[in-house]
Task: inverse folding
């Protein structure tokens, strides 16, 4: 019999299992995939942005749901502690732009492998290709789990503590298929509705097919919900067949998804020239035209102002033929171009599904979990850690930190 069974060898489960074993407990870590940390290995475009080095108050502001609940786990094991932890277990780290922390090697695998080594060094037994199918309880206490082993046979294992670290439902190919929600619900926990977050946004912009593959750097973006300005961002926007991506779109997506679910009108207004006000931009356009030959086309003027791939869609947007002579542009037309460069409107009609979402919003209702221990308020000995909980944050290393902080606290098995 084990003291603790941890379900799921992701960031939260590995941290929880190793932490529990540090205090001499017998720990079994059950993972349904063939290796640990499948998701960690693809984070940060394969580089793993494992945390963010911002000061605590700024860090907590980036957590979108259940900030207060999370702040206890964060105080217990914060970003500084995480950095020290990885350096102690032999992973050299770098702090990059935006205080984002990455392994010096640039390899997310190093984070996953270091966590597995940490668990094994502390004596955690890890079993792979083994899927937990149910949590067993008796008289309000956890007694163990049922699982399907690698040969497909149902078995059970007893333990006085079970930590559910099964992740959310985003990128299900990594093993995160929402099993933890069923386990929690089966013992009476409420599950806050789950929906994709940090996910591409689908636009109905009539020229969207021209934009696939385009990456816009240093643009401004304003999110309007029912014509009310809700959020402003600055940075990168990308376009793909999945929708509008890039850090800016992902940061906006959290509110966009909820607004779309509520059937509200959503648009993103993109400022392609955020460094110039309208007047300066008009002067720049006039300067460009003055330097051009009168027989050059409008498309050639646009080429001087925006990336090549934007020329055709922008010409259609301003509704001038791209072969209009620049010399023929009226003042009103130049002003119209300025307005569109400063505010290209992308109506948002949908969002990409869980398969493309970086995280899952929603999950195990935090009001039924003790924030000082991560223990269930419904079942003694049952703990939760990581994305399975209703906590999610912006991009920038915050979501991994949520997994590490809550995993660390759960692994202490405080009463
Ligand atoms: C493409 C991508 C890039 C990302 N990049 C970043 C980034 O750079 N920085 C950042 O902070 N966040 C990033 N995230 C988010 C971050 O990876 C997650 O928030 C974090 O990994 C969640 O950790 P977790 O341990 O809670 O869950 P998961 O990593 O999802 O782990 C859950 C584990 O439980 C296992 N499991 C599930 N059910 C069972 C079961 N029934 N039996 C046994 N095992 C089970 C799964 O196989 C899985 O291994 C990224 C996410 C994606 C998809």
Result:
């Amino acid at each position: 019999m084990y003291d603790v069974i941890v379900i799921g060898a992701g960031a939260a489960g590995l941290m929880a299992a190793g932490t529990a074993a540090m205090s001499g407990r017998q720990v079994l870590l059950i993972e349904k995939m063939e290796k640990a940390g499948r998701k960690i290995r693809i984070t940060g475009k394969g580089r793993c942005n494992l945390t963010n080095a911002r000061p605590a108050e700024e860090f907590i502001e980036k957590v979108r749901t259940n900030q207060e609940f999370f702040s206890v786990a964060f105080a217990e094991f914060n970003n500084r502690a995480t950095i020290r932890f990885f350096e102690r277990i032999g992973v050299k780290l770098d702090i990059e732009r935006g205080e984002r922390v990455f392994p010096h090697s640039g390899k997310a695998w190093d984070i996953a492998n270091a966590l597995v080594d940490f668990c094994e060094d502390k004596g955690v037994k890890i079993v792979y290709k083994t899927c937990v199918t149910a949590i067993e309880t008796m008289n309000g206490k956890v007694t163990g789990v049922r699982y399907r082993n690698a040969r497909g046979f149902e078995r059970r294992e007893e333990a006085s503590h079970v930590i559910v670290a099964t992740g959310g439902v985003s990128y299900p190919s990594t093993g995160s298929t929402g099993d933890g929600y069923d386990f929690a619900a089966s013992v009476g926990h409420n599950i806050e509705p789950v929906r994709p977050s940090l996910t591409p946004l689908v636009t109905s912009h009539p020229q969207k097919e021209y934009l696939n593959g385009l990456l816009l750097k240093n643009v401004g973006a304003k999110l309007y919900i029912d014509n009310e300005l809700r959020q402003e961002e600055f940075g990168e926007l990308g376009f793909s067949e999945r929708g509008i991506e890039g850090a800016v779109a992902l940061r906006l997506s959290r509110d966009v998804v909820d607004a779309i679910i509520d059937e509200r009108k959503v648009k993103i207004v993109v400022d392609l020239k955020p460094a110039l006000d309208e007047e300066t931009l008009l002067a720049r356009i006039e300067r460009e035209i003055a330097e051009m030959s009168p027989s050059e086309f409008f498309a050639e003027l646009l080429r001087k102002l925006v990336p090549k791939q934007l020329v055709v869609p922008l010409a259609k947007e301003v509704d001038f033929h791209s072969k209009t002579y620049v010399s023929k542009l009226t003042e009103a037309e130049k002003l119209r171009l300025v307005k569109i460069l400063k505010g290209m409107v992308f109506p948002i009609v949908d969002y990409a599904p869980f398969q493309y979402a970086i995280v899952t919003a929603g999950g195990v209702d935090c009001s039924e979990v003790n924030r000082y221990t991560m223990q269930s308020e419904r079942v003694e000995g049952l703990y939760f850690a990581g994305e399975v909980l209703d906590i999610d944050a912006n991009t920038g290393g915050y979501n991994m930190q949520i997994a590490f902080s809550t995993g660390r606290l759960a692994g202490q098995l405080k009463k």
